[in-house]
Write a structure and sequence with these properties.
With 1252 residues, the protein is α+β, with helices and mostly antiparallel strands. 51% of the residues lie in helices and 10% in strands. It catalyses: cholesterol(in) = cholesterol(out).
Length: 1252
């Protein structure tokens, strides 16, 4: 940071021809200044110039090279030259970056101090008696300065940067913001006795013509684009805008893709949809007319010959090789599951006991369960670029500090904190609040923790004050300083408002120019930049601020649990204090580093009851809906509450097994896994349970068939369908684990294993339990209370209401000739709409959504985007290995004289000029440029120890000789000799460039400080308000870093604390397409194989699921659901659940032996539709509606809305669109399967059932 004062008397380099010497105005130093302690008046002297003693020649050459009048007769002595040198230390450090600027400034002060021609342009106007005999003090002079000279000096200096402060140097040397500084008020400020530096009054008079017989000093000046005669080059572009050429212009934003002024995608999809309707409806109408004219030829587009069990004989069938293979595969699955089901019913104890042992063994891993709540671990892959860059930054420079921040507004009528009408008492109340926070004491174990124990103190141990970024630090966090004012009974000449206005323009000043002379520098030793501590102002009108921002940076300890625990304990007390703080005049929003994680955990706990109620509703529904009540008398016999509960326990056991197995493997869980997977497995598991149970309830036991044979036969019929859906989902989820996003990968692994274990338990343990329940029901024993038996009496079997509805009403209606085209038109229309708006779905996650509705953090987020003017800091990191010891290596990084036009600093500076495009808000701080400026006036003694600039020691000598070569940048050994001194030097009034505060952590020294390792250069992003802003900021910073890397030939990367969270959004679109594409391919392959190698069936299933997914994007756009890791997990899950809605219907269609596609679709919908509807749709619908009552916005949006959408879209596509699609374009009947069924069931009661 830079501690600055404001000016200084001082020095210059004349460049004009020798002329006859005139008389002097002063010579030597006399009495002490009454106004400025430590300074002296010059002695009045009107004689001729006096030869400079020999001991002053070197000093004169150092200060004013080329200032030579032959005999060196001047109007100053050696002591005046020493005073001049001391006064030039700060200007030297800040302005010597631009040789022309500093040369002109030295001219001004050398002519003032020593010129033998003083009497031509200087006039003493006030004098006092000096302490020395016969000496008179000069207490006021008039200095006639050419306006041309003044303008030229200002023009050469106006763009010079102060790298460590991210401001222009004139902001620190002019007494006001650089934008308000001009040639005259800058010189007036430097000569003003109130600046604390000038020991007497110097009145500058500007004119290019003679005034009152005086000839204004109008020496030769250099423009910043010119090199000097001593070989110094022109100023860099960063310090001299005329040297830059045209200001960069950001490329225009790409125009939106439109056709005829309409969104291109909308127009294309509208035209495509209309074209489809014309073709489709034309085909339908044409086919209908053709059938009416010719005769009935079967269903539309059906090219298959009818295959009836009663017509063709096996010997007449000419089945293809594929059909035969499919039939054999189907038969093998049926045989395998039939035998297995029969075994499970015959040996229930063995199967159930074995299942319990396996479940217990797998679930034992829950002892080792770890839950990941660290957002970095949750959202960022260890192999990702942002994660690797974060690890590199943390390992070399330490982790980014923790931030505790308040945003304070007022309820007072005049809400501008520093307007003249605003009461000072309210600012005092803010200071009281800040002091109370500083005094917070927390407990950690048996230790007391205060802010000083954990805060960031960059100058410790020299200065152990905590860094507090607050406007009150302009007043040293002191009521005494805040109340300091200068005035009389009638008028206040200077007060806190005066000091504030000065400090916001020169935040690093050690002394304001008002009558107060109070420092602006913070108590921690660094400047307080107004854009970090004020909010709600316009442009740079800081006095219009409507908000105060107070930030307490706290050290972060990633690898020290004790110190981290202390920080967390203090933060907890900080939150508690502010929650309980009340002030009727102040409105406070606040945030701590731990706040977001705390609120997410609180949210999870508060939503636990909502989730429990949701699951309870689903459990109750499942338990009651499984039963098929034949009569009121047999309610307790025909109910299947115990079986339903057992099915639910099996579902939960499969989840526990999955969690346990991966916990054994050391894979941590996430909250998404815990919240989402039970919902997913319940959907899949309950569907399978309903299919098994309802198929059994509708089945008639064949003659001479025992119970175990019947259930085995039923399992042989339905288990291949269950296996199809479960295995498809398992493969799809496991392939989803290819994702680099930890949250998605973890979810996919746990979900895939849980679904498959659930399937295994259902075809084993649940089948055994079904056999036991069937025996109980046949023996008229009551459900749950199985010891109680009803009197004998048998009720006739009837079909359930839902089955009858689907069979007799719903399926025939949906497949009517006039309904089917309407269904296709509606669903294709929905698809077209969804495609048109898919690219409009926003990417990102608004962090406000992750908070509960009643969270205090929401107010903070709101005020953050409303009031703040500066975004997060961004560091451009130069990786280890760059050569800083050579001029070539330095020139590729630095931003001063001689540096490359495409150097790191220059490129970041250029980017800051178009901040609206690049999001780089300020010029970067540069340790290298400040080091070059710092090393020029520094000293060290004969032992090699560093001499601080504020210490006067005759043993101290220049670090660099004051020769032309010594004034060049240090290279090779010199560079490393003085760099550790720079990094340990604290800024002070005489040396504002000391690097301890600003750069001690920015440079890694290696090999006992013999070489430079990794380094960084910091600036700030512009204000970032939402996810697109953060994503764009990271993209632009990376583009800039890539350009710098190319120019330097060495790796440079940008780092900001938020990159690790937002990097996922750079590739989220690609990741989404990849994840869903891989899942669809897996479903297609598995479906094709398990349906007996029926390729077309796999295509139709994949098309329907793809339509569901695309429609999910349409819903996301309509319902303002953004695309992020949470919604991607839901989309992957949607893909899995959609299989349940589609695969059972398609398999039932493929094995149907009806004669036409319409009849086969009707049979499939009647048999499987009711089970799918009752098993998934109704089960989930009740549970999902409860989620709408959640206090959590993330639950309402990403769970309630998306779950509701996936269930409704899945149900409508599976139960409405898919049967219609099959009736039009379903696969042809498999002849081999038809005649295998003929052979298997000929002459049995089953033949009649097949024809339902």
């Amino acid at each position: 940071m830079i501690l600055i004062s404001t000016v200084y008397l001082l020095h210059s380099l004349p460049i004009f021809s020798q002329v006859q010497a005139q008389h002097c105005v002063w010579y030597g130093e006399c009495g002490k200044s009454d106004k400025v302690p430590g300074k002296k008046y010059n002695c009045n002297y009107t004689g001729p110039p006096i030869p400079l003693p020999a001991e002053g020649h070197e000093l004169l050459t150092e200060l004013c090279p080329g200032y030579d009048y032959g005999n060196q007769s001047l109007c100053c002595d050696v002591q005046q030259l020493h005073t001049l040198k001391g006064s030039l230390q700060l200007p030297l450090q800040f302005l010597s970056r631009c040789p022309a600027c500093f040369f002109n400034l030295m001219n001004l002060f050398c002519e003032l101090t020593c010129s033998p021609l003083q009497s031509l342009f200087m006039n003493g106007t006030q004098f006092t008696n000096g302490t020395a005999a016969n000496k008179t003090n000069v207490v006021e002079v008039q200095y006639y300065i050419g306006q041309t000279f003044a303008n030229a000096m200002y023009n050469a200096c106006q763009d010079v940067q102060a790298p460590s402060s991210n401001v222009k140097a004139l902001s620190l040397l002019c007494g006001k913001d650089a934008s308000d500084c001009n040639a005259t008020n800058w010189i007036e400020y430097m000569f003003d006795i109130n600046n604390g530096q000038s020991p007497f009054t110097i009145i500058p008079i500007f004119s290019d013509v003679s005034v009152s017989g005086m000839s204004p000093m109008n020496n030769k000046t250099y423009d910043c684009t010119e090199g000097l005669e001593d070989g110094s080059g022109p100023c860099s572009c960063q310090d001299c805008s005329p040297a830059c050429g045209p200001q960069p212009v950001p490329p225009p934003l790409p125009p939106p893709w439109t056709i005829l002024g309409i969104g291109a995608m909308v127009l294309i999809m509208w035209i495509s949809y209309m074209a489809f309707l014309l073709v489709f409806m034309g085909t339908v109408i044409g086919t209908w007319c053709y059938r009416r004219i010719e005769s009935e030829y079967g269903p539309i587009l059906d090219s298959n010959n009818p295959h009836s069990l009663n017509k063709d004989s096996i010997d007449q069938v000419d089945a293809s090789c594929g059909e035969t293979l499919g039939e054999h595969f189907e038969n093998a699955l049926r045989y395998l599951f039939t035998r297995w089901g029969s075994f499970c019913v015959r040996q229930p104890l063995m199967v159930i006991l074995g299942s319990l042992i396996i479940v217990a063994a797998c679930s034992g891993g829950l002892v080792y369960m770890k839950i990941t709540t660290d957002p970095v671990e949750l959202w960022s892959s260890p192999s990702s670029q942002a994660r690797q860059e974060k690890d590199y930054f943390d390992s070399h420079f330490g982790p980014f500090f923790r931030a505790e921040q308040l945003i304070i507004t007022t309820t007072f009528l005049f809400s501008l904190f520093f307007s003249l009408n605003f009461p000072q008492s309210l600012i005092s109340q803010v200071l009281d609040l800040q002091t109370d926070i500083e005094n917070i004491v927390a407990s950690y174990g048996d230790q007391k923790v205060t802010l000083k124990d954990i805060c960031l103190a960059p100058l410790a141990p020299y200065n152990d004050n905590c860094t507090i970024l607050s406007v009150l630090n302009y007043f040293q966090n002191s009521h005494k300083q805040l109340d300091h004012s200068i005035g009389d009974d009638f008028y206040v000449y200077a007060d806190y408002h005066t000091h504030f206005l000065y400090c916001v323009s020169a935040p690093a000043s050690l002394n304001d120019t008002s009558l107060l002379h109070d420092p602006c520098l913070g108590t921690y030793g660094g400047p307080i930049f107004p854009w970090l501590v004020l909010g709600g102002y316009d442009a740079t009108n800081y006095n219009n601020a409507t908000a105060l921002v107070i930030t307490f940076p706290v050290n972060n300890y990633h690898n020290d649990t004790v110190k981290l625990g202390k920080a967390l304990a203090w933060e907890k007390e900080f939150i508690r204090f502010l929650k309980n703080y009340t002030n009727p005049n102040l409105t406070i929003s606040f945030n701590s580093e731990r706040s977001i994680e705390d609120e997410i955990n609180r949210e999870s706990e508060s939503d636990l009851s909502t989730v429990v109620v949701s699951y309870a509703i689903m459990f109750v529904y499942i338990s009651l809906a499984l039963g098929h009540i034949h009569s009121f008398r047999r309610v307790l016999v025909d109910s299947k509450i115990s079986l339903g509960i057992a099915g639910i326990v099996i579902v939960l056991s499969s989840v526990a097994c999955s969690l346990g197995i991966f916990s054994y493997a050391g894979i941590p869980l996430t909250l998404i896994v815990i919240e989402v997977i039970p919902f997913l497995v319940l959907a899949v598991g309950v569907d399978n349970i309903f299919i098994i149970v309802q198929t059994y309830q509708r089945d008639e036991r064949m003659p001479h068939e025992e119970l175990h044979q019947q259930i085995g036969r039923i399992l042989g019929d339905v288990a291949p369908s269950m296996f199809l859906s479960s295995f498809s989902e398992t493969v799809a989820f496991f392939l989803g684990a290819l994702s680099t996003m930890p949250a998605v990968r973890t979810f996919s692994l746990f979900a895939g294993l849980a679904v498959f274990i659930d399937f295994l338990l259902q075809i084993s343990c649940f089948v055994s339990l079904l056999g036991l329940d069937a025996k109980r029901q046949e023996e008229n024993r009551l459900d749950i209370m199985c010891c109680v038996k009803l009197p004998e009496g048998k009720e006739g079997k009837t079909d359930g209401f839902l089955f009858r509805f689907f069979k007799n009403i719903y399926a025939p209606f949906i497949l009517k000739e006039w309904v089917r085209p309407i269904v296709v038109a509606v669903f294709v229309g929905l698809l077209s709409f969804s495609i048109a708006v898919t690219n409009k779905v926003e990417i990102g996650l608004d962090q406000k959504l992750s908070m509960p509705d009643d969270s205090y953090v929401l107010d903070y987020f709101k005020n953050l985007s409303t009031y703040l003017h500066t975004g997060p800091p961004v560091y451009f990191v130069v990786e280890d290995g760059h050569d800083y010891l050579s001029l070539e290596g330095q020139n590729s990084v630095c931003g001063g004289v001689g540096c490359n036009n495409n150097s790191l600093i220059q490129q970041v500076y250029t980017a800051s000029l178009i901040s609206n495009y690049t999001t780089i808000g300020f010029n970067p701080s540069s340790w290298l440029d400040d080091y070059f400026d710092w090393v020029k006036p520094q000293y060290y003694n004969s032992s090699g120890a560093f001499c601080n600039a504020s210490v006067v020691d005759t043993l101290c000598v220049h670090c660099r000789p004051m020769t032309p070569s010594g004034k060049l940048r240090p290279t090779e050994q010199d560079f490393m000799n003085f760099l550790p001194m720079f990094l340990s030097d604290n800024p002070n009034a005489k040396c504002g460039k000391g690097g301890h505060a600003a750069y001690s952590s920015a440079v890694v020294l290696k090999g006992n400080a013999t070489s430079v390792g990794a380094t960084y250069f910091m600036t700030y992003h512009t204000i970032l308000k939402d996810s697109p802003d953060f994503i764009d900021a990271m993209k632009m910073a990376r583009v800039l870093a890539d350009n710098i890397t190319t120019a330097m030939g060495h790796k440079v990367f940008p780092y900001s604390v938020f990159y690790v969270f937002y990097e996922q959004y750079l590739t989220i679109a690609y990741d989404t397409v990849f994840q869903l594409g891989v899942s669809l391919v897996a479903i297609f392959v598995v479906t094709t194989v398990l349906l007996g190698f029926e390729l077309w069936s796999g295509v139709l299933v994949s098309i329907t699921i793809a339509m569901i997914l695309v429609n999910m994007f349409g819903v996301m756009w309509l319902w303002d659901i953004s695309l992020n890791a949470v919604s991607l997990v839901n989309l992957v899950m949607s893909c899995g659940i959609s299989v349940e809605f589609c695969s059972h219907i398609v398999r039932a269609f493929s094995i149907s032996v009806k004669s036409t596609r319409v009849e086969r679709a009707e049979e499939a919908l009647a048999h499987m539709g009711s089970s799918v509807f009752s098993g998934i749709t109704l089960t989930k619908f009740g549970g999902i509606l409860i989620l709408a009552l959640s206090k959590s916005q993330i639950f309402q949006i990403f769970y309630f809305r998306m779950y509701l959408a996936m269930v409704l879209l899945g149900a409508t596509h599976g139960l409405i669109f898919l049967p219609v699609l099959l009736s039009y374009a379903g696969p042809s009947v498999n002849k081999a399967k038809v005649f295998a069924a003929n052979k298997r069931y000929a002459g049995t009661e089953r033949e009649r059932l097949l024809n339902f």
